[in-house]
Write a structure and sequence with these properties.
2% strand; 73% helix; 2 domains; Binding-protein-dependent transport systems inner membrane component; transport; 3-stranded antiparallel β-sheet; mainly alpha; single chain
């Protein structure tokens, strides 16, 4: 092969490589970067990546307006001389505190522009909203904030003064601190009992479902392969569960498991498998078994179809020769079918294991990870951290940990289970 042919080969591969980089590599790198920060979307001071101190100018302007309005509206006649001096002292410290940050013409102009936008009910652009400041300036600012807050301790405990105290406390919330935490998120999850429980649930779900799906899928594949007259009929029937979207399938099983109207729940209660229909999804053990059953029913056809394709590659001459030598069906299965199916079984197991380990939608619809987190998988834990708690930093950490676990599983399959297959192909 000359250089020109190699070049054409690389050019044909280039689109696939670029798609892989943009779809897989870049998002993974971005998620890893997020995992190194304490990003919390429900906390304005930690809602984005920050490597330095910043002031939320919009929040500062709103806080200053609120505090100043409350101070101007205070009924000074109801206060004694000492309390009046305290209010005056607080009012005089606010401009001094402001100058510790807005100490240049550029910064003052930015604050004025933000105030103009807020007064006109217009949105503030993020480039205008956040003002980078030094640690020294933050220390000066905090010193004034603490001094002002300490002054409020001598004020009377009235609703008006409590509102003022809350408004002044908000000055501390306008600081956007550096939220780089390095590997602290990973260290946290190494000690997290909930993650350990989620990993155990995921591994249990994966091992049990993949085992039964392989056994039942192999049985179905052999039947579909041997019964030629009914092959197309069997394929159509077997593929029905796999063709149903997972969410629809999960809802269907949830209705059948329902403690009040579920037909399966009532049937299991009638034959004594469960105490009452409500126990099917409310019991920690029964809920996991119910989720496994639904997954086995849905995904067994996937294994069966893959194995049928593998069976079709086995030459019929091998079976004919075995019959001539007097081999029965059981001997043919273990000596011919299974060895020849090893590559297909490896691929089916690898794909199915990775899919089962990342299970989310089926269990989320059925149980939501309950009861008492007994069916919570790593993917569901990640979802709850990201979207329920809005903890983007730790949620990204969990996503990276899932990637590492999936990589380890793939490595084990290829290196251990696939070693004999690949070495046989080389020979």
């Amino acid at each position: 092969m000359d250089r020109k042919e190699k070049l054409f080969g690389y050019l044909f591969l280039l689109p696939a490589v670029l798609i892989f980089i943009f779809v897989a590599v870049i998002p993974l790198v971005q998620v890893f970067i997020f995992s190194l920060f304490d990003i919390q979307l429900n906390n304005p001071t930690k809602s984005e990546v920050s490597l330095s101190y910043k002031i939320d100018v919009e929040n500062y302007a709103n806080t200053l307006f609120t505090a100043s309005s409350i101070i101007d509206g205070i009924n000074l006649e109801a206060l004694n001389d000492s309390q009046k001096k305290t209010i005056a002292r607080i009012k005089s410290l606010l401009p001094v505190m402001e100058k510790s940050i807005f100490n240049t013409k550029t910064r003052i102009d930015r604050l004025n522009r933000v105030n103009d936008l807020l007064n006109n009910f217009q949105p503030v652009d993020s480039k205008l909203k956040y003002l980078p400041v030094s640690a020294k300036e933050i220390n000066q600012y905090n010193a004034y904030v603490n001094k002002i807050i300490n002054l409020t301790n001598s004020l009377p405990n009235t609703q008006e003064m409590n509102d003022l105290k809350q408004a002044l406390l908000a000055f501390d919330q306008v600081i956007v601190k550096p939220n780089f935490v390095g590997l602290q998120n990973y260290s946290y999850y190494l000690k997290d009992s909930r993650l350990l429980s989620a990993v155990k649930n995921t591994l249990l779900f994966t091992v049990v479902t993949v085992f039964f799906e392989l056994v039942f899928g192999l049985m179905l594949a052999v039947v579909m392969h041997k019964v030629a007259n009914l092959k197309n009929v069997f394929k159509s029937i077997v593929l029905l569960p796999w063709a149903i979207p997972t969410v629809i399938s999960a809802l269907m099983w949830k209705f059948m498991y329902d403690g009040q109207v579920g037909i399966l729940a009532k049937f299991f209660a009638d034959i004594g498998l469960i105490k009452s229909p409500a126990d099917l999804l409310s019991s920690t053990t029964n809920a996991m078994i119910a989720a496994m059953t639904a997954d086995i029913w849905k995904t067994t056809p996937y294994i069966a179809i893959l194995l049928v394709a593998g069976l079709q590659t086995i030459p019929e001459s091998l079976y004919e020769a075995a019959k001539v030598d007097g081999a029965n069906a059981v001997y043919q299965f273990f000596r011919i079918t299974l060895p020849m199916l090893k590559p297909t079984i490896l691929v089916a197991l690898l794909f199915r294991t990775l899919d089962a380990f990342r299970v989310f939608d089926l269990i989320y619809v059925l149980t939501g990870g309950g009861p008492a987190n007994s069916t919570e998988t790593v993917s569901i834990y990640t979802y709850k951290t990201l979207f329920n708690q809005l903890d983007f930093g730790r949620g990204s950490t969990l996503a990276v940990l899932i990637f590492i676990m999936v990589t380890i599983i793939s490595f084990i399959y290829i290196k251990i289970l696939g070693a004999e297959v690949f070495s046989h192909q080389k020979r």
